[in-house]
């Protein structure tokens, strides 16, 4: 019980001083608030109902009669409020028949109205939903929708889709079609799949949700649906086929489908119209199917004005803004290795602060954007931070970096190891010569290149190439400019380095490396291709569809306002710089990678800080 006090003046007075002058005397007003009153009121109303007292209306549903209080019904249902307060015929009737409402459904609604308790199960949920929709008891409608979402499986998803469409439950409808899409391969083998109406199948094929099978399997699944009743369904084949991404269907699958009776007539004209059937098309690397997915620029962790963060955000061109994706499932950390394998994001190693001490760890995590799920992976043989993690030949290579075991500056070589995602196993490989951290690395045509970095306090320009077959590193031509805290990327059979810093003569300060250098493995030579309009280091750098993106970073080491959210991009083929919409916050020491992300996600936008 809470109590508030209000001081007010009153006409009461007390004499004081000469002549009996009066002074106002305050009264204490107390306002009482009993949290239990709501429950007491409900209990009392239900007790009146159970004892048959003050009842003033009878509801009839499914041949059964239920007595109630008009005021209770009107207080929680727009349907009954209008019935009992507007000039409607039922306002004067003592008995009201609710057609289309079952006795079981009405019983549950009355229990909820008088007790706030709702018992749902698969046997009664449809009755309750129908009754709640009829009398416009929206809280119960929402509860039924939430319950059905939680119960979705392959055995009931088709029925739930029909329920969602019958009662205009838009959120449930989106959820059930997303579920059917993500289980399409299994669902297509069930008898329930054949119960989908043509409109439902058309929507399933047209909605923008990821699927669990190739587009060739989607095509054969549609053929199976058409074959179930070809006399009635064959006329719908052209419309259904137009909802497929036939350009991702391999030639041999198209040829097989074209021989099926239900597809022999509509498929070849569509093939010719779309210009497919030549070669062996495939979805982008790492994807089973590109349905519902879009290539995004993903920002992993880093720092902002609020400090270090494990937050991962992404930018979709179709949405035009940055949104939250997920969070690394570890204590807040930095300087880890990041890579993408099979469209799964790997975050490995790194360091975190504990009691003002830097702790380096070997653990790793992988994130599946299709299922929005993190899983753990085998830890590295040694803890690492400020190292490189690079995909080559289906393996992840962890090269150099700082470690707890040995100080890198005292080593003759930096230890390296390779990880097999298929086997979840790390194995040691040849170490790169010299101590090396805060370097860049990328693979080009089966060769792993490592360039620049720090050896103790010295900024490096050296470059080495690793060939797995020989398990050996070979020196290559050094970069034109030494640099650390930069990035290496590959495109078109060449290696590009961008960003970073080096020490000015005398070692009195850092100089930003403003050039983008290109390495041609065929000539073992470096060249400058352009200069970054806004030089910075600790930036997120990646290549997406031939465009080099530079996201955020430090642009000064001397001024207070030294971080930036600027995003610039360079067309590697056209040779032109452009400016993209800036990141909503100033960010640095993050990593950026390309990753296919589902378009249909309900994520919050990234909010700016001090913008």
From TrEMBL:
A molecular function GO annotation: actin binding
UniProt keywords, alphabetically: Kelch repeat, Repeat
Domain BTB: 55-122
Family annotation (Gene3D superfamilies): 1.25.40.420, Kelch-type beta propeller (2.120.10.80), Potassium Channel Kv1.1, Chain A (3.30.710.10)
Region (Disordered) residue spans: 1-21
Pfam families to which the protein is assigned, alphabetical: BACK, BTB, Kelch_1, Kelch_KLHDC2_KLHL20_DRC7
A biological process term (GO) from this entry: protein ubiquitination
Role description: Probable substrate-specific adapter of an E3 ubiquitin-protein ligase complex which mediates the ubiquitination and subsequent proteasomal degradation of target proteins. May have a role in synapse differentiation and growth.
Protein name: Kelch-like protein diablo
Organism: Chionoecetes opilio
Source lineage: Eukaryota, Metazoa, Ecdysozoa, Arthropoda, Crustacea
Gene name of this polypeptide: KLHL10
């Amino acid at each position: 019980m809470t109590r508030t006090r209000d001081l007010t003046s009153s006409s009461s007075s007390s004499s004081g001083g000469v002549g009996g002058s009066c002074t106002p005397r305050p009264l204490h007003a107390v306002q009482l608030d009993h949290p239990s009153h709501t429950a007491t009121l409900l209990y009392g109303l239900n007790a009146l109902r159970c004892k048959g007292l003050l009842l003033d209306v009878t509801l009839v549903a499914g041949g059964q009669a239920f007595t109630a209080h008009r005021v209770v019904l009107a207080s929680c249902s727009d349907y009954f409020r209008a019935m009992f307060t507007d000039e409607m015929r039922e306002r004067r009737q003592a008995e009201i028949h609710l057609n289309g409402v079952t006795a079981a459904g009405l019983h549950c609604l009355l229990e909820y109205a008088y007790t706030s308790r709702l018992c749902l199960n698969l046997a009664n949920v449809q009755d309750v939903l129908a009754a709640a929709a009829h009398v416009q008891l929206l809280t119960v409608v929402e509860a039924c929708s939430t319950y059905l979402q939680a119960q979705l499986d392959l055995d009931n998803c088709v029925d739930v889709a029909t329920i969602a469409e019958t009662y205009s439950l838009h959120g449930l409808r989106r959820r059930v079609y997303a579920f059917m899409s993500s289980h399409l391969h299994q669902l297509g083998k069930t008898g329930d799949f054949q119960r989908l109406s043509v409109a439902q199948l058309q929507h399933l094929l047209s909605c923008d949700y990821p699927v669990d099978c190739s587009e060739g399997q989607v095509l054969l699944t549609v053929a199976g649906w058409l074959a179930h009743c070809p006399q009635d369904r064959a006329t719908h084949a052209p419309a259904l086929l137009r909802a497929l991404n036939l350009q991702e269907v391999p030639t041999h699958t198209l040829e097989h489908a074209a021989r099926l009776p239900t597809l022999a007539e509509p498929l070849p004209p569509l093939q010719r119209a779309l210009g497919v059937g030549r070669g062996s098309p495939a979805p982008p690397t790492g994807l089973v199917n590109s349905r519902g997915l879009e290539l995004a620029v993903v920002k992993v962790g880093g720092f902002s004005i609020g400090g270090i963060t494990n937050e991962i955000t992404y930018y979709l061109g179709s949405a035009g803004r940055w949104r939250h994706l997920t969070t690394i499932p570890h204590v807040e950390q930095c300087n880890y290795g990041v890579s993408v394998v099979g469209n799964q994001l790997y975050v490995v190693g790194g360091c975190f602060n504990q009691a003002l001490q830097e702790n380096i760890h070997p653990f790793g995590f992988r994130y599946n954007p299709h299922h929005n799920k993190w899983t753990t992976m085998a830890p590295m043989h040694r803890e690492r931070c400020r190292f490189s993690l690079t995909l080559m030949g289906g393996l992840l290579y962890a090269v150099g970096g700082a470690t707890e075991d040995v100080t890198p500056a005292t080593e003759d070589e930096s230890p390296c190891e390779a990880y097999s995602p298929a086997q979840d196993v790390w194995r040691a490989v040849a170490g790169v010569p010299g101590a090396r951290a805060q370097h860049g690395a990328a693979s080009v045509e089966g060769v792993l290149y490592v360039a620049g970095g720090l050896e103790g306090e010295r900024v490096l320009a050296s470059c080495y190439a690793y060939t797995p077959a020989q398990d050996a590193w070979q020196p290559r031509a050094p970069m034109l400019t030494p640099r650390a805290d930069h990035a290496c990327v590959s495109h078109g059979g060449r290696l590009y380095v961008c960003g970073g810093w080096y020490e000015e003569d005398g070692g009195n300060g850092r100089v930003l490396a403003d050039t983008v250098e290109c390495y041609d493995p065929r000539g073992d030579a470096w060249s400058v291709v352009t200069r970054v309009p806004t030089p910075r280091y600790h930036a997120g750098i990646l290549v997406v569809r031939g465009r080099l993106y530079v996201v955020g970073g430090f642009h000064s080491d001397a001024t207070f306002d030294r971080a930036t959210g600027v995003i610039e991009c360079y067309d590697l083929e056209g040779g032109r710089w452009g400016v993209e919409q800036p990141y909503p916050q100033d960010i640095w020491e993050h990593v950026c990678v390309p990753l296919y992300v589902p378009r249909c996600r309900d994520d919050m936008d990234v909010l700016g800080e001090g913008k």
